[in-house]
Structure formats: C-alpha cells, structure tokens
C-alpha cells in the first residue's frame, strides 16, 4: 500500500485554516512542524503556541483523486492556494524504520540510555532502559544531556536526590542506578508522575527507594543533591523553595536555561549557593553549585 502526502510551508494563520480543511477532505493524518527553526519557550498553562512559519503535511490514502483534492482546496481558499508539493510514500515497516533511528546513547563512562529493544553495550554500566518518542525527556535534548553528564560525574553512592520537574523520571532513575539510595520525583503534571512511575518499574527500582509526587505532597527532609531541569522562569520563581530542600554543603544542578538567562538564574540563587562555571550545549546551560550555609 502507498500513501500520498501533500506538503505546504505557510504562515501560522494559514496553517490554522489548512489543518481542518485537510482533515475534512479525508486526510489520515495532518502534521504541523516548525519550518524555520523557531524555538517556543515557556507557553502559558493551557496555551498551544504555533511557530511563525509552519510545515503542514497531510497524509492521504493512495486512492485519493489529487485533482479533486486540489480543486476542493482552491475553493476553500478562494482560488489562491499556497505553494505545495506532492509526494508518494512507499509502504514499509514503519515501526521498524522508527526503531532503527534510535540507538543507545552514552553520557559518561558509567551511564547510558538504551531503548528497551536494544541490549546495553556495557552491561556493567548504569543503563537507563527508556523508550524514545515519549512526551517527556529521553536524553536527546541538550538540557537533559547536560543533566545526565553532570550526574555521571558525581559521587552518588548512598546519597539522596530530588528530581524537581521529573518529566519521564530519567534523571532520578539515572541517579539511582549510579548509586543514590533514595529518590524523589516531583512534577506538577500528573502525566509526568505516571511516566516516572512506569519508567521506574521498567528499570526495576524498588518502590521504597523512589517517591513520586506533586510539589505540595513533597515531605522530604533536605537532600544531598537536587536537580531541576525546567525553564529559567520557574527556576527563578522557585529559588527560595528549592534552596530549602538542599542540605548544607549539598549540591544543586539547574538546567533548561538559555545562555542569555544564566546571570538571571545565578542571581536568584547566589545568596545560598556558590556556582561552578556554566556548562553549555547547543545554546542551553546547566548551572551547578554547592550550598554555602
């Protein structure tokens, strides 16, 4: 079986009209993606922002009559249709093709992330078994990679850690596999807590070694390490809350910070922490520090 794909690159006001039109004309799927490498940062709760330039892809069964499809779109858009391209997609094992894109990723001598269908390259290392394509972090984004690299460089044996904004739970799971004995995963999103719970089970973390909760339900004593991969705005707002969760001489690692936001975040925490030089990857920064009090 083959499919036919029609591809547009348009402004967001046109994309918002194209999407329902393609669906109404029988598209099996309509995908919107960034056409100009424009990042979107810190949307408001409930907001679904769009890029200024958007690639709209409509996927149709091969039996669709292209001429009729274009004619219908022309009527919808007043005989002025944005420039488009039509492609024929050959049938193949899409699941296998998707899986073949992902291989184990190494973050330090001791730490790997492995898709669950792969055998770990180094069975003696800390191997986080985690499938890509989830709604939360899987290690491919620079901010998550920075955090994993930082964890891989720490002495974690016997220590406790809070993963604040845990998402998939990847950081807390990595910390446990590297030697932490007690982990707290905290997030405001119930779906993130569910993802962390499932991934902790996947990685065989005993339930008494990890606590997963909303921020208001966190009742942990101060811990030796706290890691928060969120965004600069929430990190600044949470400074006074997070510092109370770290023991004297304990360590904090903050990420989700653009390089241009570094000074702002340091300023919010410098009353309590002495920071190391920032670590940067692809324009994102990780700040790590030691509590002075």
Task: Write down the oligomeric state.
Answer: single chain
Beta percentage is: 25-35%
Which fold name fills CATH's third level, the topology of the largest domain?
A: Rossmann fold
- The 3D shape can be described as elongated
Helix content: 25-40%
> Which superfamily, in CATH terms, is the homologous superfamily of the largest domain?
Vaccinia Virus protein VP39
Radius of gyration: 23 Å
What is the CATH architecture annotation of the largest domain?
3-Layer(aba) Sandwich
Q: How many distinct domains?
A: 2
CATH C-level label of the largest domain: Alpha Beta
Mean pLDDT: 87
Assign the structural class, choosing from mainly alpha, mainly beta, alpha/beta, alpha+beta, or little secondary structure: alpha/beta
Brief digest:
This protein has helices spanning 12-24, 66-76, 94-99, 142-152, 170-177, 190-202, 232-237, 239-243, 262-269; strands spanning 3-11, 29-34, 53-61, 84-89, 105-108, 111-114, 126-129, 160-164, 182-186, 210-213, 223-229, 246-258, 273-275, 279-281, 284-291.
Q: How are the SSEs ordered, and which strands pair?
A:
Elements (H helix, E strand, L loop, with lengths): L2 E9 H13 L4 E6 L18 E9 L4 H11 L7 E6 L4 H6 L5 E4 L2 E4 L11 E4 L12 H11 L7 E5 L5 H8 L4 E5 L3 H13 L7 E4 L9 E7 L2 H6 L1 H5 L2 E13 L3 H8 L3 E3 L3 E3 L2 E8 L2
Parallel strand pairs: 6-7, 8-9, 8-11, 9-10, 11-12
Antiparallel strand pairs: 1-3, 1-4, 2-3, 5-6, 12-15, 13-15, 14-15
């Amino acid at each position: 079986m083959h499919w036919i794909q029609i591809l547009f690159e348009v402004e967001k006001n046109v994309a918002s009209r194209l999407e329902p039109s393609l669906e109404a004309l029988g598209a099996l799927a309509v995908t919107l993606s960034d056409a100009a490498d424009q990042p979107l940062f810190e949307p408001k709760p409930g907001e679904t922002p769009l890029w200024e330039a958007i690639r709209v892809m409509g996927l149709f069964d091969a039996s669709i009559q292209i001429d009729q499809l274009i004619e219908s779109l022309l009527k919808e858009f007043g005989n002025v249709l944005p420039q488009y391209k039509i492609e024929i997609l050959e049938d193949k094992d899409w699941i296998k093709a998707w899986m073949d894109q992902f291989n184990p990723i190494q973050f330090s001598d001791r730490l790997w992330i492995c898709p669950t269908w792969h055998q770990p390259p180094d069975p003696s290392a800390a191997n986080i078994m985690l499938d890509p394509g989830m709604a939360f972090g899987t290690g491919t984004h620079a901010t998550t990679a920075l955090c994993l690299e930082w964890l891989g460089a720490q002495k974690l044996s016997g220590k406790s850690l809070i993963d604040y904004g845990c998402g998939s739970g990847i950081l807390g799971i990595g910390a446990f596999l590297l030697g932490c004995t007690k982990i707290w995963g905290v997030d405001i999103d119930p779906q993130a807590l569910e993802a962390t719970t499932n991934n902790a089970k996947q990685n065989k973390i005993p339930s008494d070694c990890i606590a997963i909760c909303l921020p208001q339900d966190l009742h942990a004593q101060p811990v030796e390490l706290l890691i928060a991969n969120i965004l600069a705005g929430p990190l600044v707002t949470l400074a006074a809350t997070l510092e109370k969760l770290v023991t004297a001489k304990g360590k904090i690692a903050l990420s989700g910070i653009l390089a241009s936001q570094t000074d702002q975040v340091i300023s919010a925490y410098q009353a309590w922490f002495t920071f190391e030089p920032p670590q940067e990857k692809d324009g994102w920064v990780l700040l790590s520090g030691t509590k002075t009090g």
